[in-house]
Amino acid sequence: MSESASANAPKPSSSVKLVLLGEAAVGKSSLVLRFVNNDFQENKEPTIGAAFLTQKCSLPTRTIKFEIWDTAGQERFASLAPMYYRNAQAALVVYDVTKPSSLTKAKHWVAELQRQASPGIVIALVGNKLDLTNDGGEVSETAVAAEAESESAEQNGEEGAAEEDEPQDAVSGDARKVSTREAGSYAEEEGLLFFETSAKTGTNVVDVFTAIANTIPESSLKTGRGTGAGTGQTSLGRSAEDARVNLGDRNVAKANEGCAC
Amino acid sequence: MKSQQDPRSDGHEPAEISEQASIPKTPDTGHDKRSPSPEGERPPLPPRPSTLSLLNDETASRATLQAEATTAVSRMDIGTQSSDAGSAHSTMALRGLPRGPRAKTSLSQLASSRGSEAGDSASIRSSILNTENGDDGALFTDFVATAPGGQPQDSTGLLNFPEFAADDIDDDGILSEFESIGELNEEGDNEEMLLQRWKAKRKHYVILSAAGKPIWTRHGDSGLISGYVGVIQTIISFYEDADDHLRGFSAGDTRFVVLTRGSLHLVAISRMMESDNQLKLQLEALYMQILSTLTLPSLTHLFSVRPSTDLKRPLQGSESLLSSLADSFTRGSPSTLLSALECLKIRKQHRQTISNALLKTKASSLLYGLVVAGGRLVSVVRPKKHSLHPGDLQLLFNMVFEADGVKAGGGESWIPVCLPGFNSSGYLYMYVSFLDIRDDIENSAEITKDESVAIVLISPDKEAFFEMQGMRDALVEQMEKNGSLKEIKTAIGNGRPATTDIVPGTVLHHFLYKSRANVQFTMSSYSPEFSSLTRRRRLMSMYNNLHSSIHAKDTHVKVHHCVSRSVSSFGWVTPVFELYCIAEPNTNRNALAQSASKVAQWAQREEERLFIIGGAVF
């Protein structure tokens, strides 16, 4: 649908270099796979080295082409990371909501990015594996829960665990070890976008990328025809706020109509 | 027997074939008291009756008796012999409790017979030396350069004629071999069951450090089997303490082979009737994979700084590469058996066109460029001074095609990798991109391994990703324009030829042909007969036996014909090629020889289509 839309009225397009960082096995590749192919694989083998993928994201006023570096999380690859984040305009720092140590590692990555990456880099902190928790995330309004449910139903029916984990279900089966509040307040302090996602069910995945696309300052986009778009948000802090507040409704809607995936 | 006695004969015609075995005239080494058997008679009795036996029924019972006598006194039997190289190796034969006359007796006999094959690794050592002085001009450097009839060797291996090696592997067996044994639950009360499942596996690989830390095991996590790892460690270090190296031992019908490299012990445990040499090659490949992940200097450094280093952490994420490599051995890999590579059969002119495209689009920092179709090489571009090592390519192909880590990513990959055969001390960077050559995009999920085409570009420069990407784009554009992609697609569609395509009406069911000079092999199609995993495994077992018979120490076998209840196999080795064929058990000998000779003629006629000769060089 977005392709026909963009064919009718060519929008200014620009490419954004994005890098994924985070501990091994938190779901970086699965997030990318969900975003790029709308697909999910159980027990995916670990990434070796790094994978390079692209995906277009169509916003109302412009098209963003993400050039994504999906890096391997193992420590022996850590020394190669600077090569990937050096000129990146955006970074997804991913942790696993069921594994506190992965948030610690994520904080290290955030610190390294703030120290070494380009100054204007947009960083999103992403807590993945939301499907393993009881709630759809504390911030989730009914819209998100419903979204998650309908999506999981649409997929191949093997989401038994996710469906059992209804928000009302009190304690049983909740593997969450990192509270939304803890990670959220850290993200706020550091001025990061913050999302909790499930690559398995698809919850919030597209939203992360859309929010990043919306947050990239117009001025930092290298593009031949990147003029005229007026809605580009330049204040990192504000947009982070926006993303958190609106994640339930507006971004989901926008994502569904907007992204080519 | 003429053909066997003259090691220099070119062997283009299998002049005479002994019915069951070709026993060469071996130098009298003291423990070999046999004389060559006349044609038509069954092979002579084994030279060392205490540990060796034929699989014939008559001898099996005799050997069982001996085993009983020995085990009654002691369960351990340690023998030291001097090998050709002059150094003393000792092997330990651990025999199981006496077994009654049952179907599997032959298996245990065979396994224990291997226990006394000392000095097996001598050839490995010499082959590694050969690896160093690679021929600059050659495309591939031969990993295992064991010339037939090279030096006098002892002939014990010849006597290993398992009736049908994998006969005890039922259909479920081979499939369950790859299943996970599951995880220890929180209460830990399923440990017994897990161990049971673990023991049921026919093949194990265990890698541990000299300090006894488990590093990797194919089945079960190290916590579960730490007790067994401790036992292995104890046995190995018992010999280390005596300044000796344990190479292998048998327990019942299970063969243990140990390979020590630096601070690592690699152990293969097999109930699949593989020879020591074959298991050793597999362990070598696993070791190469570890080097490929870490490089030799960093591996050495880790252990020199802290001998008790837990290597699991630095290897994290590469376990799946080790596992897929191990599983390919368990399934049976012609490439590993022959230490050679397979190429996609394509017209010489078409291959030339692809090579030219590679040369034309070559990026300045490129070291090696490969076009690979489902693990079969299509074309190569390389610097004049550097050959490619089959062992290195085996690691690359395993990573790209067998393990899911690269392919499942869905994009282009940029992977630091050490190619130990090229240079074990540093990393190269490998760009991998899969091409979609199918017409219909619909069933994109169903690209099988054989159908996927990958462009692999290797550079020493870690920043060269976009340069390699540019080369890939230019290369693909070229290949699209000149029709090469279509040719590759057609070649993949054609598949491997059936034996009857090559020799109409032939008695052969399958063959492997290795071109020794090119270090490459070709084979006939698995289908329809060997399509299933089980049947393929059996086929590979037959080849394993044939191969180890022919390449046994101290033999100068040129032609080897073996008839058993279930199969008749035929091997033929000349300085130019090695040919291994499988046919029905009651196949006429002349028909078999005739077919084999026709296959050999075909392979030589089609040489430039079947093999890459030289490749594109810059």
UniProtKB/TrEMBL annotation, chain A:
Q: Which CDD domains match?
A: Rab5_related
Gene Ontology MF: a single term: GTP binding
Looking at the record, which segments are called Disordered?
142-183
Keyword Glycoprotein present in the record's keywords: the answer is no
One Pfam annotation reads Ras
Keywords on record = Nucleotide-binding
Report the domain of life of the source organism. Eukaryota
- Please give the InterPro entries that the UniProt record associates with this protein: P-loop_NTPase, Small_GTP-bd, Small_GTPase
Where does the record place a coiled coil?
none
* Ranges of biased composition (kind: Acidic residues): 148-168
- Which NCBIfam families does the record match to this protein? small_GTP (TIGR00231)
Question: Which named protein is this?
Answer: Uncharacterized protein
Which species does this protein come from?
A: Penicillium arizonense
Automatic annotation (TrEMBL), chain B:
Q: Where in the cell is it found?
A: Endosome, Multivesicular body membrane; Prevacuolar compartment membrane; Vacuole membrane
Where does it sit, as one GO cellular component term? Mon1-Ccz1 complex
InterPro entries (UniProt xref):
FUZ/MON1/HPS1_longin_1, FUZ/MON1/HPS1_longin_2, FUZ/MON1/HPS1_longin_3, Mon1
Spans of biased composition, class Basic and acidic residues? 1-15, 28-42
Membrane topology according to the record: Peripheral membrane protein
Report the main location listed first in the record: membrane
Q: Residue ranges of the FUZ/MON1/HPS1 second Longin domain?
A: 365-476
* All residue ranges annotated as the FUZ/MON1/HPS1 first Longin domain in the record: 203-325
Give the Polar residues compositional bias ranges: 56-90, 105-115
User: Which keywords, in A-to-Z order, does the entry hold?
Assistant: Autophagy, Endosome, Membrane, Protein transport, Transport, Vacuole
Task: Locate the region Disordered.
Answer: 1-122
Q: Does the keyword Protein transport apply?
A: yes
Please list the GO biological process terms of this entry: autophagy; protein targeting to vacuole; vesicle-mediated transport
Please state every residue range assigned to the domain named FUZ/MON1/HPS1 third Longin.
508-607
Q: What does this protein do?
A: In complex with CCZ1, is required for multiple vacuole delivery pathways including the cytoplasm to vacuole transport (Cvt), autophagy, pexophagy and endocytosis. The MON1-CCZ1 complex acts at the fusion of vesicles with the vacuole, through its regulation of the SNARE complex during the coordinated priming and docking stages of fusion, and particularly at the stage of tethering/docking.
Q: Which family does it belong to?
A: Belongs to the MON1/SAND family.
Task: Give the protein name, as stated in the record.
Answer: Vacuolar fusion protein MON1
This chain's source organism reads Penicillium arizonense
